[in-house]
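Why should sequence recovery work at all? Because a backbone constrains its sequence more than one might expect. Tight turns favour small or flexible residues, buried strands favour hydrophobic ones, and helices have their own preferences. The token representation captures these environments compactly. In the example below, the structure is given first.
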């Protein structure tokens, strides 16, 4: 195994800037790794080797000419298949978009290209980001590198698995209700959901527009910070984009000092339903934070009891509206009925019936019902009222603490098939991550230990626009845990093999 694939993005950046390796070398090493193991893990839906190597060669030439480049120039990246990329097939893991090659780039894609980051390929996901296991991909599931009988999380299981399996040092994910943080937790990686509006959503295939947020996936807190600095910033093409300056997240990740900070445990995100190993790992991490000088307190957020139900009304409602455009008329799949007249209505029905998977159909039906006449106020309107209560609970909690913490998921990765026929059991996997999306605040998951030999995550939440706090607390906790373990969980448990 080429040792370049085991390097963090920060380490690769140093090697590239020192001229000790070339971007072509680094990119080739990761493409070779993908060729070697992705037949097993299926992290990628498609690779873009020619484009990646062309970008790497260009970066090497610019660096050799003395051009000043960004810290991640030449470091390759995997991109979730929900990010529109000009000239590269983008499907959101759905048959209804199979073969669609976008004629334009998302803002995220443009920023990655401007940073000189070679695109290794598009990663697998639950169809249109609807799911918590990557079992709902139209092109087959991704396997967890820790145990190939278990799910890698979702919807961004492909991005998390690619990073965990050393197929990519960095990846892009999207988080609507935990789809960056939950896969990170069950694969032993780091995932960050930025403040809503911190990263542009222009050119991101929409699921639920008031909840979706793009963010980094990596193996270290510092690597996520470096990628976050590339992604963040105001975009006039996104009406929800924030005009805030981008702070040095990487400096906060390296700071290491959290003495005197107040860290609050959320009472409602723990206890019954949480695996014993998850709780034990969480308590051990709290002890580490105490040892670093943080004050640990407890806060109560009563409305969180209703957050899951509210989320699964708001998300389907927005999804049913966003996915109405896939009608077989303009682009993507078109299926014509084999009998009877060919009308717009019948083509639309045949196309959507053939192109959408069962989970997408389930949520479209639920969302359309919630928005229908006579039910709007009872369902969607009530869910939005709960959302306001969640936001108020967060405001009250942050008045008492600098950051809030909880386990990222109630359990480690479950086995394939265990919950796919039980939507409620599947949805409960996101119970700890969903409140942050309803409130638009930033959240991070980082590895906190093992439960029955499988990784579990520690979630940190910060007030809106205070993403830097995630990196300050996360970086300090990661350093202390890694020192106590004698290395990262991925290194110690031989995932790269």
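From this structural description, the recovered sequence reads:
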């Amino acid at each position: 195994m080429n040792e370049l694939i085991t390097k963090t993005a920060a380490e690769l950046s140093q090697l590239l800037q020192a001229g000790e390796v070339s971007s072509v070398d680094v990119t080739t090493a990761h493409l070779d790794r993908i060729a070697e193991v992705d037949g097993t893990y299926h992290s990628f839906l498609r690779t873009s080797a020619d484009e990646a190597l062309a970008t790497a060669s260009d970066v090497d030439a610019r660096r050799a000419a003395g051009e000043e480049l960004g810290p991640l120039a030449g470091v390759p990246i995997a991109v979730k298949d929900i990010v529109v990329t000009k000239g590269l097939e983008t499907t959101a893991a759905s048959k209804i978009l199979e073969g669609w090659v976008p004629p334009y780039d998302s803002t995220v894609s443009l920023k990655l290209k401007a940073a000189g980051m070679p695109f290794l390929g598009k990663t697998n996901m639950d169809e249109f980001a609807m799911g918590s296991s990557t079992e709902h991909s139209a092109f087959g599931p991704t396997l967890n590198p820790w145990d190939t009988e278990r799910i890698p999380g979702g919807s961004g299981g492909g991005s998390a698995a690619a990073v965990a399996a050393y197929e990519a040092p960095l990846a892009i994910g999207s988080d609507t209700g935990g789809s960056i943080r939950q896969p990170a937790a069950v694969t032993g990686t780091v995932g960050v959901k930025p403040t809503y509006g911190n990263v542009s959503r222009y050119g991101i295939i929409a699921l639920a527009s008031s909840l979706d947020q793009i963010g980094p996936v990596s193996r270290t807190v510092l690597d996520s910070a470096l990628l976050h600095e590339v992604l963040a910033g105001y975009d006039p093409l996104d009406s929800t984009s924030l005009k805030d300056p981008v702070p040095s997240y990487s400096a906060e990740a390296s700071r290491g000092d959290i003495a005197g900070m107040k860290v609050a445990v959320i009472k409602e995100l723990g206890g019954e339903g949480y695996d014993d190993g998850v709780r034990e790992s969480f308590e051990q991490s709290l002890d580490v934070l105490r040892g670093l000088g943080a004050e640990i307190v407890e806060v109560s957020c009563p409305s969180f009891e209703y957050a899951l139900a509210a989320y699964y009304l708001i998300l389907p409602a927005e999804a049913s509206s966003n996915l109405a455009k896939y009608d077989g008329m303009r682009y993507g799949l078109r299926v014509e009925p084999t009998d009877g007249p060919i009308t717009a209505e019948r083509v639309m029905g045949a196309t959507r019936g053939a192109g959408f998977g069962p989970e997408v159909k389930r949520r479209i039906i639920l969302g359309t019902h919630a928005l229908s006449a006579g039910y709007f106020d009872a369902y969607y309107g009530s869910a939005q009222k709960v959302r306001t209560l969640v936001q108020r609970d967060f405001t009250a909690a942050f008045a008492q603490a600098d950051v809030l913490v909880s386990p990222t998921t109630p359990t480690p990765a479950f086995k394939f098939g265990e919950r796919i026929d039980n939507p409620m059991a599947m949805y409960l996997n996101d119970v700890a991550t969903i409140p942050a999306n309803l409130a638009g605040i930033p959240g991070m998951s980082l590895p906190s230990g093992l439960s029955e030999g499988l990784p579990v995550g520690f979630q940190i939440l910060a007030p809106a626009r205070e993403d830097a706090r995630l990196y300050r607390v996360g970086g300090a906790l990661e350093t202390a845990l890694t020192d106590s373990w004698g290395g990262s969980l991925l290194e110690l448990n031989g995932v790269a093999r």
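A few observations help interpret the result. The first strand starts at residue 44 and ends at 47.
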